[in-house]
Amino acid sequence: FVAVYIVNVVAIADDVKSLRAVVNPDISKIRNIGIMAHIDDGENKMWERGITIQSAAVTFDWKSYRINLIDTPGHVDFTLEVERALRVLDGAVAVFDASAGVEAQTLTVWRQAEKHHVPCVCFLNKMDKPAANFSIESIRQKLKANPVLLQIPVGSGKSFSGVVDLLTNQKLIWKIRTELGDDGRVFESKPLDQSDEPELLQEASEARTALIEQVADLDDEFAELLLTDFGDNFDAVPSVKLQEAVRRVTLARKGVPVLCGSSLKNKGVQPLLDAITAYLPAPNERHHDLVRWYKDDLCALAFKVLHDKQRGPLVFLRIYSGTLKPQTAVHNINRNSIERVSRLLVPFADQHVETPSITAGNIALTVGLKQAVTGDTIVSSKASATAAARRAQNDGGARKKRGEDANMVLSGVEVPDPVFFCTIEPPTMSKQADLANALNCLQREDPSLKVRVDPDSGQTILCGMGELHIEIIHDRIRREYGIETHLGPLQVAYRETILHEASTTDTLDRTVGERRHVATVDLAVRPVDIFSSGGLCELDFTEEVEGQLSPEMKAAVENGVHTSNLQGPLLGYPLLGVSTLIKSVKVEPGTVPVMVSACVSRCMLKALRLAGVQVLEPLMSLEVTVGENHLSSVLGDLAQRRGTVQDIQSRHDNKVLLATVPLAEMMGYSTVLRTLTSGTATFSLALDTYEAMNPQDQSILLKRMSGLL
């Protein structure tokens, strides 16, 4: 379950070394990279309904480099898998369908890469499709990126046979070899000369000149070299100098190199691997401030958990510093626990190969860590974490002025809130414990899966990122754990927010036994923009309160606010875009923190009701590619789903419909679309934002939730 076009070339290339040839290469020779694509643009070897769902890791050597490759999903329901992969990568390859350009989910994944400041290389795939169009305009316009064209294709569609490398002026041609099969193993490389077609020579010359001018605009060092030594003759610019400049531009994220090919036939994949090693960063070129305090001690991040029936939990670790060896004890800072790594593996192609050690910069697969979950920081010992914290505190100056604490935990993976939920029931009560165990294992593997028990009905509630996400979980429980579960109807996870500012005061006076507990809280709530706050609720204290509260009482106040944020006053959905300011907290002696939390929650409830509560529903960006003869049917269906059409574009013989639609209206859409278009249309969804429901729809929802409909 890896990116098949990379693995195919690795399997057949003559210059690929075995894993044992270089157990721990120099860190400058390591590349931790990911493949980002829109559903099937990468032509990956996929599983579970034809989509790469879990980020698959594979290690291989290419020439003198070690490449740790992580493939990521191209479906909106599995955004966390992309987030999880990007958190531990140093670079990424964005794969686009040359006939379609930038599509909806590509944009979502690209934004995630930008958030983590991951340098990228672009690969225009499927150049051998009849509708292939070698254009980088969609990269520039939709991604707001600066594409740096390093190749031009030789032919297109069925006549696509290779590429021209603009840095070296070499023509690379993949010829069909019937005796060996058309597997991309062999290609010819020769300099462009006068025997080539005049149109190709002119196009290559103009493209190389444009490349040199573009790189000079983006890199001052190269511009100075150009003006000093090659102002009269761009053709004389050495390819090595141009390559160095392109690398600086890529690492600075001022531009993205663009290559092309056809991964299905492995055409253009060898140059892509060369580009990965030439332009994407080594681990020591990506700076993680916290890691330097550990020096040579182990510091690693657990970024994925898998469950193996024979070996138990398998935990993927990114090693940031130090060395990890099997049969050694490690300290999990997040769990405050010590565990032993019994075995250390490298995911080499489709095998897990044991290794005696893994050094900084690499990705490891560990056996024996039974408590670690995604996002945990693993270090060699509690003492090493304490020493790292001491070094950070002693750094003085700027750090202390910023008021940062010496938290020695690596920033983990941001887990998005679920948007769908449903009940799940075992076939018999005797299977309840087995189902609970299965759900516990699946939650460790997938933190975006949430499981809770309804306090009123006692039913188990499954919360996920979409229809497909929940369907896959349901299928895995049946297939891997042998439990035939029943799913209730899917429901949308709405959110609540407030309309206005409001302030209030509340006093809790309660006697328990012989002790009297008295707390008075004065607070204010106000709405904040969902985009600027990232959809999160904010909490602030006045300086006076900040100075008065003990750490224990401050934690109690935070807990009270957090509890209120999880359950809005209208329908009990979590809050979005609410900022709370604690203006005053007065606590009588003897009052326990839990009473302070209760007082804060009660005060919050009063303030929220005074501010006016509004239901928010998740709004999806929808992109439908459909033939013109079916367009009117699709538009009519969207109108019934409260959809808003943003644009209709032409793409070859098809129309591309861009719209926003409430998630609640998209259940079962794939089946309906297949019926409307006789199976010829495709679509993709991405969560856009949360939007206030109109009064009529909110009234219907309130009645439904109240059992009146």
TrEMBL record:
InterPro entries: EFG_II, EFG_III, EFG_III/V, EFG_V, EFG_V-like, EFTu-like_2, P-loop_NTPase, Ribosomal_Su5_D2-typ_SF. GO terms for biological process: mitochondrial translation; ribosome disassembly. Keywords: GTP-binding, Hydrolase, Mitochondrion, Nucleotide-binding, Protein biosynthesis. The keyword Amino-acid biosynthesis does not apply. Residues 1-284 form the Tr-type G domain. GO terms for cellular component: mitochondrial matrix. Pfam families: EFG_C, EFG_III, EFG_IV, GTP_EFTU, GTP_EFTU_D2. PROSITE patterns: G_TR_2 (PS51722). GO terms for molecular function: GTP binding; GTPase activity. Transmembrane segments: none annotated. CDD domains: EFG_III, EFG_mtEFG_C, mtEFG2_II_like. This is Elongation factor G2. It comes from Dicentrarchus labrax. The gene is gfm2.
